[in-house]
Amino acid sequence: MNGIIITVNGKNYEVDGADTTISRLLELCQVESPEMVAVQCNGTFVARDAYDSTTLVAGDDVEFLFFMGGGR
Amino acid sequence: MNGFTSNAIHGAYPAQNAHGSLRVPVYDSVAFAQETSEDLHQAFAGRRPAHIYSRITNPTVTDFEQKLQLISNGAGVVAVSSGMAAISTLILSLAGAGTNIITTRHLFGNTLSLFERTLGPWGLEVRLADMTSPDTLAQLIDENTRAVFLESITNPQLEVADIKAIARVAEACGVPVILDNTVTTPYLFPAKDFGVAVEVLSTTKYISGGAPCLGGAIIDLGTFDWRKSPRLAPWAARMGPHALIGFLRREVFRNVGACMAPHHAYLHSLGLESMGLRIEKSCDNALKLARFLKKHEAVVSVSYPGLSDSPFHPIASRQFSQRFGGILTFELVSRGQCFAVMDAFRLIRRATNVNDNKTLVLHPASTIFEEYAEEDRRRMGVGEAMLRLSVGIEDYEDIEDDLVQSLARS
């Protein structure tokens, strides 16, 4: 695939260059209970209703911030 | 699965427990090890959903929080060590020196004491309003107002405000409404539907299932835009609607340390399962007792929003699903007579708590409100000859029999 490199929580991460959205990234990263995660892209908060429409480009810096109890 | 009790029983507990346990175990461990140092770093940074230290999160406590979130339809929950911890931690998160909150003199005594006597010297101004007149609130709110705080049914005045009307005024002014929903709980009062921003609970009461332990909760109902809160605006920029829970978990709650014990969370989850049944029985008993006391010749007056002649009956009927809580008060002629009646009880216990399984009696003026002068108590609606009954779930006839014999002996 023609991948692009983005940063997820400080680590390089390769995703498909074609139309990878925040929603897709949450799936790829196997984030449980995504409604319990705050997502930032390049330092800006991304609202949940924009997950499907926010397409990632090379060099994007994505942060998943967890604020409820930890994993299982 | 949409039913209140179904959610309270089944919650969000995953099916993948190693032994098929139907209950979340009590994780009585302070610390949780991580696989690698990088995992530990990421968990501390909030980038990885892991329990690291039980003052911040704990698996048993998280399970209870998730159940509360389901039954309240909330956006996020933080369970704390008591109801007072919920209020103090929340106010510390929203307000500060030079700011004010709008509340009422008709409050649980310790709550008013927290606001005026504990936080007052730190620079918090407390503005007292008449919550039964929502239209008067706006004139008290200014650019330094950080919250409007009230109780769903005030304790012990048993006053009921039009909460939707209050929320409308506060929202127009860009101020969140905090509701202490302890005595009604999300079972009787779905606060989110009425525009409340944050619900606080003393889970010690109805939720715990008979007061085996203390607990509290802060529930962000997701109705308020935290960008309007000066203290939370930076967090809203980072975490959007999760700003309050994020700020609590990653700063104020973490730093204050008022965490819920895992064993208490376990007991609370157990209590939550039968809460609906217990509330119905308690409310039914309370209504019957109020009607009985109303007719008793030794009783000067009875206050209970379930009585049709209560000034709060119409609004309580609309807000609380035709049930009116488990607390009632009645007046005798003197403090001395109150003490005599209390001392004559055989079943009813002399104790300060509400919404226990047991029926409890208290003389508020000489206990919770003892720190206030008599004149102040009068303005708070706490009379010298008032007794408060928290009506339990015993067989009704046994409670009435105890009142009959105690009133006859007084």
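qc> The first strand of chain B starts at residue 76 and ends at 80.
qc> done
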